[in-house]
Structure formats: structure tokens, C-alpha cells
Amino acid sequence: MKNTNKPDVPPTEQIGQRRGSQLSLRQGIQAMRNVRAFLRLIALFIALFIALNLADLVVTLVGLRLGGFEANPLFNPIFRRSTITASLLKLAGTLLLTTILLTTFSTMPRLTRWVATFLCLILGVFVANDVWTVARLLTR
What we know:
By secondary structure, the chain is an all-alpha fold. It has one domain (41-139). It has five helices and no strands. It has helices at residues 11-14, 25-65, 76-81, 83-105, 109-139. α2 packs parallel to α5 and α4 runs antiparallel to α5. It starts with 10 loop residues before the first helix and ends with a helix.
């Protein structure tokens, strides 16, 4: 006859864990390595995002000194009035977007990775265009 007072469940399930939810030490170490690699990747994207924004600012300022103009309709009037104000606004926008990326990373890491990748690609295109424009201004 079976004892009805004691459930016929393994001890790990009795304390609230399901079977198969325990990681071996090797699996735990591998999971931590994956998390660290993911964090390094996000840090790389954010550093690249900041570097590309700074490169965009520097190349834009060089282009303006060579007789070019800001193609962004939002920043063009600001650059015409004061390059210092426009530069500070550009840096403030970079800081704001970086802060948003860092805060959303804690709740949506995969989305943050895709957004950071997209922003870096777009900024890379902008910087390449700025460099090409400056090269053309230098040759005239």
C-alpha cells in the first residue's frame, strides 16, 4: 500500500524546481560566457555609435570650413548661426540616444542590439558621405 501523505515526486520538484531546469557547472559557465560575449557586443556597438557621431561632427565641421553646407534641414539653420551651439546639440543628442540604448538594454537586450546595429550602419553611411563630400571640396 502506498503512503498518500508523501507525494511521489523527486526531491528537486518538491522544492519548486521542475525536472531538467538544473544546469550543470559546464552549462552554467557556458551560459555566463554567452552573456559576457553579448555584453561586450553591446558595449562595442555603443562605443562605435559614439565614435561615428564624433566623426560625423568633425567631418561636418571640416566640410563647413571648406565651403560646404549641412544637408540636415534641422541642423542647417543652427550650423549657420553657431557651429558651437550645433556641436553641443549634436553631442547632447548622442548622449541622449546612448542613455536610451543603455536603459533599454536592461529590459530589451535583443532589440537594443538591433537598434544599435541599425544606428551604426546609418551613421556609417552618413560619415562616408561626409568624407566623400569633403574630398570633393578639397579637389576643387
